[in-house]
Write a structure and sequence with these properties.
Layout: H1 2-36, H2 38-49, E1 50-55, E2 62-63, E3 69-81, H3 88-106, H4 110-122, E4 128-134, H5 136-143, H6 151-155, E5 157-166, H7 174-177, H8 187-191, H9 193-196, E6 201-207, E7 213-215, E8 229-232, H10 236-253, E9 257-264, E10 270-278, E11 284-285, H11 290-293, H12 303-312, E12 321-323, E13 328-331, E14 334-337, E15 346-348, H13 349-354, H14 358-369, H15 373-382, H16 413-418, H17 427-438, E16 443-444, E17 449-454, E18 457-461, E19 466-468, H18 474-490, E20 504-512, E21 524-533, E22 540-547, H19 557-560, H20 562-584, H21 590-603, H22 618-627, E23 631-634, E24 656-659
Parallel strand pairs: 2-8, 23-24
Antiparallel strand pairs: 1-6, 2-3, 3-4, 3-5, 6-7, 8-17, 9-10, 9-22, 10-11, 12-15, 13-14, 16-19, 17-18, 20-21, 21-22
């Protein structure tokens, strides 16, 4: 009996020791987890429940040369509610008022809003969606609603900010302004992305139910820094003229697409660029940047390049005679024809350019360069016609001028190139050459951007870039000037002649898709006009290219593209003349002087309260407010109709004001 008791006691002792050791081991492990491995596990836990959420910086603005806003980033807000965190008494006291305000702003009845929020509170929903894509003004308004005005922790108000790219002036030069997103990075937006992009900030968020993330704090852990602004060379007035002139002609001729570029002769600044293509509904929109990217056979527009080479090489003069016969000519087994029925007969080289004789140019170049075609081709290449312009904008088309030994070279290549076939150039490359002619031989690089700004201060300027100080001799330039003036006075462009306004340029009519089997019954053409104005001391050069006009209506350069050129030239000339008249006048009025002195006194005084900017021009108001240390966002254009911060309120530097 005693032995049995002793055995039982021994077993109990061993069980006790085992349990004690087990408990000690558990305590040791817990201590190890808490003190030695606790930090690692806490980090793992935080890693699973916390994250840094990127806050994207506002991209810089894109402005026209006169300060009009072409592209800007606008804030959008997504509003959510932590319905569970609100104090019960506060919730019951104000839920009806909140629902009424939400109903007024967002629609849906107040009772539906109340039921929705109550259900979310019952289900402990801490991330209830209230609204998406609210503008800044609506965000400020909804933030002041009952319950929400208590903030994030007491009122459960959660606001997520994002930015969207907006174009206040619509589709003005849309393809040139471009974009920088999932679609790619064409245009100015893509080329200058390093300037436009700011520095991202971040906000700490915590994971809550159903995989949703809720901000931890009311403020950002790191504020984003906005990007710099781009000031383009685009002139809104000229852009508007060019766009509507092109659009009207595209519609009249039911063309497939077209483009216009207006360049300032001396500087190379692009003052207008419009690219319009037709959609399936027959409407025109900025589809592709044809002026920069589309390379085609230029047709008769290239005869000017051929003439320059022939004159510079001294193989002909403007008075050199060439027999164009009756309008048909066979060369190396291939027929060449002129547009004039019956031909032009025996004419001078200058007249061949004026009337755009294909036969004349084929014979002049073939007869003088057939034994040494490399000389002709190398002379063209010497004028940079085979080189890209090196534009910052992506997608520039590659020029092609084949020479002997190239795949595209044949015995017919030389006469074909002479009048604009068997090679390819983009509209902007052609215009750059013509602009050099207008600029007395100096070839300048087309330029889309004038400067970079940050907070209205100049950061970097972009000046004129010279590609070639002289593409040919002054003697040749003078002769080309006379011939291009005569194209308009008595040549293929004589329909464009205006006694009181001088223009110079060259018509172009090129066949396209002529390799198709049905071309004889379904012909397509590319119509163009390239030139400059005024003819004496040119201010602007311009190219108009229209693809596939309805042949039954018309397709010659003088009929289709020429009128667009003339319309643009005369409207620019008229508008600039009026501006010059106003600028040259210097009226002095005592009342204006008093107003100026009063404004000057105020602007130089330390201001600590919000001014009233209603009625001021938008750009003046923005400059004034930014100089006071405010961030300015705005919608629309023209004069200020409303401001989000009331006049007289204390200025808090760094805060944002919205102008309408």
């Amino acid at each position: 009996m005693a032995a049995t008791k002793k055995g039982i006691l021994n077993k109990l002792y061993f069980v006790f020791v085992f349990i004690t050791l087990f408990l000690v081991a558990i305590i040791f492990k817990l201590t190890d987890i808490q003190f030695d491995e606790g930090e690692r596990y806490r980090e793992m836990s935080e890693h699973l429940t916390l994250k840094n959420d990127t806050i994207f910086a506002n991209r810089g603005n894109v402005f026209s040369a006169d300060g009009s806003l072409l592209a800007t980033s606008m804030s959008q807000f997504e509003i959510r509610m932590d319905a569970f965190t609100v104090d019960g008494e506060e919730f019951e006291k104000n839920i009806r008022s909140l629902s009424v305000e939400l109903s007024k702003m967002l629609g849906t009845s107040a009772s539906q809003w109340e039921n929705k929020i109550r259900k979310a509170r019952t289900n402990k929903n801490r991330y209830l969606l209230i609204a998406r894509k609210l503008g800044y003004t609506d965000y400020m308004k909804i933030k002041s609603f009952p319950i929400f005005n208590l903030g994030m922790y007491k009122g459960g108000f959660i606001a997520e900010q994002s930015t969207v790219r907006a174009h206040p002036l619509g589709k003005v030069a849309a393809r040139t302004i471009g974009y920088d997103d999932y679609r790619g990075a064409p245009g100015i937006e893509g080329a200058y992305r390093d300037y436009l992009n700011g520095k991202f900030g971040w906000r700490l968020k915590q994971k809550i139910a159903k995989g949703q993330w809720k901000p931890i704090n009311d403020t950002n852990e790191k504020e984003p820094i906005d990007g710099k602004d781009i000031v383009t060379t685009i002139d809104i007035n000229i852009q508007d003229i060019a766009h509507h002139s092109l659009l009207r002609q595209l519609e009249i001729y039911e063309a497939d697409h077209g483009c216009v570029v207006v360049m300032e002769t001396k500087t190379g600044e692009i003052k207008a660029i419009s690219n319009l293509g037709k959609n399936t509904n027959g409407n025109y929109y900025e589809r592709l940047n044809y002026a920069v990217g589309e390379s085609n056979e230029p047709g008769s527009a290239f005869k000017v390049m051929s003439m320059v080479v022939a004159l510079e090489s001294k193989v002909i003069d403007t008075s050199t005679m060439v027999d164009t016969g009756t309008g048909k000519y066979i060369i190396h087994g291939r027929s060449i024809s002129d547009s004039h029925r019956g031909g032009f007969g025996n004419i001078s080289a200058a007249r061949a350019l004026e009337v755009s004789s294909n036969i004349g140019f084929a014979r002049l170049i073939e007869e003088n360069f057939a034994q040494n075609p490399e000389k002709f081709i190398n002379s063209l290449r010497g004028m940079h016609l085979n080189e890209k312009l090196g534009l910052p904008i992506k997608g520039e088309g590659k020029p092609e001028i084949p020479g002997p030994g190239d795949k595209k070279w044949s015995k017919n290549a030389l006469p074909s190139i002479a009048y604009g076939y068997n090679l390819s150039l983009t509209p902007l490359q052609i215009l750059t050459f013509y602009n050099a002619i207008a600029n007395n031989g100096e070839m300048v690089k087309p330029r889309f951007v004038k400067e970079i700004r940050s907070h209205a201060k100049n950061i970097e300027s972009f000046g004129k870039e010279v590609i070639d100080p002289a593409i040919c001799s002054k003697e040749t330039i003078d002769k080309i000037h006379e011939m291009l003036k005569n194209v308009v006075v008595r040549g293929t462009g004589k329909k464009l002649y205006a006694e009181n306004f001088s223009m110079a340029g060259k018509t172009g009519t090129a066949r396209t898709e002529y390799w198709k089997e049905d071309w004889d019954t379904n012909r397509f053409y590319i119509s163009s006009f390239t030139g400059y104005f005024p003819a004496e001391n040119p201010k602007y050069s311009c190219i108009v290219v229209i693809h596939k006009p309805k042949a039954q209506t018309g397709y010659y350069g003088a009929d289709v593209s020429g009128p667009v050129f003339k319309d643009i030239a005369q409207k620019i000339y008229a508008s600039k003349s009026e501006i010059d008249k106003i600028d040259n006048a210097s009226p002095h009025f005592k009342s204006i002087e008093n107003d100026y002195n009063t404004y000057f006194t105020i602007s130089n005084r330390e201001i600590d309260s919000m001014p009233n900017v209603k009625g001021m021009p938008g750009m003046d108001a923005i400059s004034l407010l930014e100089n006071l240390g405010l961030k300015v966002s705005y919608t629309g254009n023209g004069k200020v109709a409303g401001q989000s911060l009331n006049a007289g309120a204390k200025i808090i530097k760094g805060s944002t004001i919205i102008l309408n």
